[in-house]
UniProtKB/TrEMBL annotation:
Signal peptide residues on this chain, from the entry's feature table: 1-26
Record's keyword annotation contains Signal: yes
Protein name according to UniProt: Uncharacterized protein
Source organism of the structure: Friedmanniomyces simplex
UniProt cross-references to PANTHER family, sorted A to Z: ASST-DOMAIN-CONTAINING PROTEIN, PQQ ENZYME REPEAT PROTEIN-RELATED
InterPro entries: Arylsulfate_ST
Amino acid sequence: MYAHAGHPSAAVVLVTSALFFTTTQAGEYHDEPDKVFSFKSRPDIRAPKWNVTFHDEIRLSPGYWFVAPYEKYVDDLDTYGWVGPHIYDGHGDLVWSGNNQFDGANIMDFRLQNVSGVESLTLVDNNLSKGIVLNSQYEIVESMQWGDDPIDINDHEFQWVDNNTRNLVINSAWTRAPVEASRTVGFDGECNTIFESFKELNATTGEETFRWDSYNHIRLNESTHMNFGDTIDQA
Ligand SMILES: *[C@@H]1O[C@H](CO)[C@@H](O)[C@H](O)[C@H]1NC(C)=O
Ligand SMILES: *[C@@H]1O[C@H](CO)[C@@H](O)[C@H](O)[C@H]1NC(C)=O
Ligand SMILES: *[C@@H]1O[C@H](CO)[C@@H](O)[C@H](O)[C@H]1NC(C)=O
Ligand SMILES: *[C@@H]1O[C@H](CO)[C@@H](O)[C@H](O)[C@H]1NC(C)=O
Ligand SMILES: *[C@@H]1O[C@H](CO)[C@@H](O)[C@H](O)[C@H]1NC(C)=O
Ligand SMILES: *[C@@H]1O[C@H](CO)[C@@H](O)[C@H](O)[C@H]1NC(C)=O
């Protein structure tokens, strides 16, 4: 989530059921008029409603809330009007919803960035594994893929740097860790491991110009690991 908040003491507190959309069963909420916006002209949009509490509104700089609720795809929920990028004004009124434009896909890292000298909306389409730039008309002006396999893409970062000539992105490579390293987390064999790396890409060509990989740099026993039983161990 992203917002302009002018003064640290002038916090906007969002008290809402909307957080439930990402963590519990959205199906229970998506038809309730006090929980989602609904429009006769745009029945596809069901952006979550926010309950905005102002503690010291006069000290708050004006701005917008950028929100992209995430939903695990569930077969019996055929539409996901609340998933995807939405922009709200400071009072929680819906300004724009990109749900339809991105086919209800989960959207990550939705924010403003200066791209080629123009303040632009950027996001990562989790379904297509693409970094996307929208112009002020909400039209797609850049659509970039990185990594050979979408499963390798970590959608949490799509950053334009170096006067907009390069991108920084994160990769998640599934790899089998060596036996010796696996042993340090109590696994007998080669455990399945996600090694995160970050890449710098040429923004024009998508070519990789730099990469730092956690493989051989961060030990498994210094990482998060989950034991899913005696056949697979992840770190
Ligand atoms: C928003 O806040 C009001 C007043 O506190 C409360 O009555 C209402 O149920 C809240 N709505 C949601 C969606 O949480
Ligand atoms: C995800 O992308 C595939 C095509 O790659 C498309 O068929 C599918 O409808 C998309 N799903 C969502 C939820 O966007
Ligand atoms: C965006 O970057 C350009 C240089 O590429 C700079 O001239 C411009 O002032 C920046 N705009 C904003 C809104 O930061
Ligand atoms: C940034 O790029 C613009 C062209 O997009 C160029 O005019 C400007 O000189 C560059 N600024 C710097 C600091 O390199
Ligand atoms: C990106 O690639 C193009 C084409 O090869 C090249 O002209 C340009 O200098 C590269 N930019 C950077 C930042 O490496
Ligand atoms: C991780 O394993 C290495 C090598 O076995 C050991 O030196 C290090 O102290 C361990 N680190 C932690 C946090 O247990």
